[in-house]
Design goal:
2 domains; two-stranded antiparallel ribbon; alpha+beta; OB fold (Dihydrolipoamide Acetyltransferase, E2P); 472 residues; Hypothetical protein af1432
Length: 472
């Protein structure tokens, strides 16, 4: 390894531009480089560990971070003087070569040295959500405004107030340290993604689902992550994050905020807390409780799916086509076919900016467009003063009558005078025991465009003893 001079106290330390020199600046993502490609880049040091091979050869294992995410690196010819200056949380310049070992990409380091990073340079080291912040802010406001339950609405408005500490942290926090939505704004993006899915499921399974409870639970299920993971380079776990975890922290935060919301009854708060406590779904995934109500079941599966989709999409973006490397979290390779070759968060973010959602529409920000208005506003369980009541269910379709022999054939949809006339009769509404159709609500979205293929997107993957983050 070439030695890079360690500056004495007060000596000149290169900044990112000086280190990169004539190479590309900002430097490209390591995941986008081919094996054997040169690497000239700057990183934040997430961790540094001295190790040795089976043959007893010493080396350093480094985990580095830049705005594209985490990068594994190896220093095979350690120089004690140089490595002593490589400290966790510090910034370094690296020159080396990208290698693929056992299907994993890593940087073989030839040169490494501390660098000087100003406040203006920090954006080079913190990955960010591809979704525009203003689009996510507008979507959050629309969702909160759609909650009819006065107590839940007041609680959400309090916790997500952008002027409050929790609200500010929520908008910057990552959803995880690695694997899914591990970037600034990742928690915001992930939360909106599963809330969209939960809102659709509430309409699909109406009238048995308390839509307001489910949507509120989706918005708050991971709120404890604002205190579990620090929004700084490498996204380290905080002390309380390691000792308590985001579920217990979230339950505590919601309980504290609820004391200032007299409109929120004890039963409603208990049901909401159950959604937070059970959203991981399984005890072996560090879930304090398993889902015991319908809304909790929907939340868990939407959360799990969004986590897997986000990580799988990121994995597929590492190849132009064909098979990815074997992924330890999924325990398999994934195949990128031609239909998905042009997708990715950058393309979707650009499409979102080019085609803003119409006013009053709940827009998921991905192409092709799927827009759903927040229509149903229902809460179940508590029926006291001020609690919203369920709207009447859609009428049950009458049984079909056999057509008379002399009757003309029915008009085709193209011959119908209006789309309404061409629409099939609604399916019979399923009403839960103890409820009448008049006391139930069909919460179908009022507008939906054709579904998209796959959105890049979020939470729990099968347990991996080597990564705490798989449980987040």
């Amino acid at each position: 390894m070439q030695r890079w001079p360690v500056p004495a106290n007060g000596g000149p330390v290169p900044g990112p531009r000086e280190w990169v020199g004539s190479a590309a600046f900002p430097w490209p993502a390591a995941d986008g480089l081919a094996g054997g490609a040169p690497v000239v880049a700057c990183y934040c040091v997430v961790s540094s560990q001295k190790d040795q091979t089976k043959a007893g050869k010493p080396y350093y294992k480094l985990q580095l971070s830049d705005r594209y995410g985490l990068v594994e690196a190896r220093v095979w010819d350690p120089v004690a003087e140089i490595m002593a200056a490589v400290r966790q949380g510090g910034f370094v310049g690296v020159r080396g070569r990208l290698e693929v070992f056992n299907g994993a990409r890593q940087v073989k380091v030839n040169e490494i040295a501390p660098i000087r990073v100003s406040a203006d340079d920090l954006e080079l080291f913190l990955p960010r959500s591809p979704r525009p912040p203003e689009a996510m802010e507008a979507e959050l406001n629309e969702i909160v405004a759609s909650i009819a339950d006065p107590g839940l609405h007041a609680l959400l408005a309090r916790l997500f107030d952008p002027a409050g500490e929790t609200g500010r942290s929520f908008r910057r926090a990552p959803a995880a340290k690695m694997n899914h939505h591990a970037y600034i704004g990742g928690l915001f993006e992930h939360t909106l993604s599963i809330t969209r899915a939960c809102a659709l499921m509430a309409g699909h399974y109406a009238p048995e689902i308390d839509r307001d409870l489910l949507v509120a639970g989706a918005l708050l299920h991971d709120v404890g992550k604002v205190r579990e993971i620090a929004a700084q380079a490498g996204f380290p776990y905080t002390d309380e994050g390691k000792l308590l975890g985001h579920i217990l922290l979230g339950l505590q935060m919601v309980a504290d905020a609820a004391r200032e919301v007299p409109e929120l009854g004890e039963e409603r708060l208990l049901l909401l807390q159950h959604l937070i406590a059970s959203h991981q779904g399984r005890y072996e995934w560090q879930s304090p409780r398993e889902p015991r109500i319908l809304e909790a079941l929907i939340l868990h599966y939407c959360d799990d799916l969004d986590a897997k989709m986000n990580q799988a999409s990121a994995l597929l973006r590492t190849v132009q086509g064909g098979w990815t490397a074997h992924d330890r979290s999924f325990g398999r390779e994934l195949f990128r076919h031609g239909e998905t070759a042009s997708t990715g968060p950058e393309a979707e973010a650009a499409e979102e900016q080019a085609s803003p959602a119409a006013e009053g529409e709940y827009d998921n920000g991905h192409a092709p467009r799927r827009r759903v208005r927040f229509a149903g506003k229902v809460a179940h369980g508590e029926r006291g003063a001020g609690a919203p009541q369920r709207a009447p269910a859609r009428p049950t379709a009458p049984p079909a009558q056999p057509a008379a022999a002399s009757s003309p054939p029915a008009s085709s949809p193209a011959e119908a005078s209006s789309p309404a006339e061409a629409s099939p009769a609604p399916a019979p509404t399923r009403v839960p025991p103890g409820h009448s159709p008049e006391a139930s609500s069909a919460l179908a979205p009022t507008e939906a465009l054709p579904a998209k293929r796959v959105a890049p997107p979020d939470d729990v993957l099968p347990p991996d003893p080597h990564s705490l983050d798989l449980f987040n």
